[in-house]
Amino acid sequence: MKKTIIAICLIGSLLILLDTIDFEHSLVLLLFAGVVPGTNIVISPINMMAATATAMTVVILRLTAWPHIKAAFTDQLKSKLAARRIV
Question: Structural domain boundaries of the chain?
Answer without folding.
Answer: 1-43, 44-87
